[in-house]
Batch of 2 targets.
Target 1
Amino acid sequence: MPKPLVLALGLLPWIPALLCRVTTVGEHVVLEGESLTVPCQYEPQYASYVKYWCRGSMREFCSSLARTDNIRSDNPAEDKLSIFDDQVQLVFTVTMNNLKEADSGWYMCGVEIGGGWTADVATFTYIKVIHGLSVVSSQLSGEEGSSITVECLYSERYRQSEKKWCRSGDWSSCLLTGSEGSYEDTSVAISDDRTRTFTVTLKKLQLRDTGWYWCSAGQQQIAVHVLVTPRPTTTVSVTSQLTPSQSVAPSLPPPNSIITKQSWNNRRQDHILEWLLLCTSLMLLVGMVILVRKLWRLHNPRDPFLEQDPVLRQANEEKARISKYSDLQHADVVFPKRNYQDAHMY
């Protein structure tokens, strides 16, 4: 038989597992003594198939722990392990109660396909059971004067241990549950159910209670932050009732009329400023023109019209020549060869 054909026949059982999948969360971390529910989602074509839950890291060596075709009891909450298939939501869930550290390891949720040539569809998840301490919420806030409750969860080995509630950085502030598993004063109440939870209730909160705290079981500690917000202030409105004989004070004008009058005054001032600027500009312009004209006359005493007329220029030259020999202040120069209207006389 050719090698490619042998290889294809070897991969044939894994084709459904590659194309159709079962999905779940890859890892779970849970405190010792608590319960865990693992959801396994599958595809619609496997709704009527048998689902199972087994322990192991390989399909071939996975030890079966629960199957949907073998329900052990009518009360899954009391069982160490239970399985339930919801064919409408296409998910089957596995619940493990009262977990121990020995329960840590690899598990597999799978769908049984059946047949020697077809592999089951499955997926793996890792469950880690630890001993220690945790809190439901590590950030809590409350209004001034109110109360808040902190839930501290511990593993089974700390069931009989003494529980503490302390303010961070102040060992003298630690409050202990004592032999009865409880403590209470006017501001703090601690209660231990001796199973896996002890609660701390802070009463009549004040602003100075804001800060970091930690709850402790045995040698385990976990931090909690408490924020106290100020109490909202309430305003009391006082309405006065006037008798008919009392006079009512005149009401103030509405804000709109005040705003309108103010804006009108602003516009009036703007117009006055505009006119002042315009008048000032015109006065400066006229002054500059007068100044330029005076400067021009100072540097050019002769009339440009006389300088440009050749006849008058010749008359002036002739008058200047004659004035060298005699004082002719009122002499006239006549050019008879020119037309009468062109003659000029001085």
Note: The chain is about 20% helix and 30% strand.
Target 2
Amino acid sequence: MRFHFALTLQALWTGVCQAAMQHYPAAWGHYDVCKSQIYSDEGLTWDYMACQPEGADMTHYLKVSLDPPNITCGDPPETYCALENPYMCNNECDASTEELAHPPELMFDLEGRNPTTFWQSTSWKKYPKALLVNVTISWNKTIELTDDIVLTFESGRPEQMVLEKSLDYGRTWQPYQFYATDCLDAFTMEPKTVQDLTQHTLLDIICTEDYSRGYVWKYDKNVRFEIKDRFALFAGPRLHNMASLYGQLDTTKNLRDFFTITDLRIRLLRPATGATMVDENNLSRYFYAISDIKVQGRCKCNLHANSCVYDKEKLGCECEHNSTGPDCGRCKKNYQGRAWSAGSYLPIPKGTANICIPNNIAPVTRVCDNELLRCQNGGVCVNNVRCSCPSDYTGLLCESPRCETELGGCGGPNSGQAPLTPPRLLLLLLLGSAVLREACC
């Protein structure tokens, strides 16, 4: 009796702790818990749920590379002029002096310092040859974007630029968005904004003119790739209906892949000129300078982990549900009793864990894993492994009234249950046949 009471208290305490960890309303489906202990007819057991890591600043874990590699200013030292004032030429870049150097790492350092730190390219001294720079950001890990990508330029914002993504660690690239002062002239595309998109055109690649103004105005240093505005097409303007978004991500692979990346590439094609004509007598006015890049996201763990660790300069999911791999993309050894499957956001708010099960698990305990053998009489299939039955029923599929095991059976005057009917006998025969067939094979 004491043991039963202790188990009940432990289950209640686990539920209280789980509720305390929930940062958002349950209807949002926050998915921060992979499993919790519950008390059932079998005693204290695990209840498995879909789970994912919290969103984080992913710039702490990236590697950056430039193409061409010698495009950073300072070797040899150079003096730069202000775009808006060609006679103000007091900005020096010298790679051999720490205070005057502008290496690419300064795109990701702590902001708020004075003076501002930034990466800077060489100037456009080879005009009219194009000043082309590729800034490639790599994680060596699949991540899911959770907020806008924001680039902050210390120079004028580029007049032509492309943001690209890779899903295969940089082997292939596809455009995310085009940016230009004149989209038709630069990319033969009609200009659009994210506000022009709908649920049906969300995956369209657009060219926008919103972020390509030439001069550095006080509040116009940023270039965005709007993630949250795209989320809002399903979740509402304040993202209040995350259940709708999660449902779409769960059922539409192309949509989920759209927000998933392994690498980003910023292709800088034409610097800000601030005018229709380039001043060939003062090409030191034209260059690229980036002071900050923000990328918010989470490790992709296929809804099988709620934490991701950075060890030996590499990100990896701490996999649950008997899964393993960098993205929890396969079942652990000896847990391949059925094919691996990603977790599911549905049903909201806990989702479906789709755990990997042991190889030697008895086939008879996997009854609700079979399309023909669903739980009966209001029973609920738990993790595609067993049926959780209502109080009045028992059996592998909740097919038997509990009163059948009681004195007097179900035919007694106080049982409230009818005797076993032929359809129920047929169900038992079907169950027996399926179990024998699985055991033989």
Note: Residues 2-21 form the longest helix (20 residues).
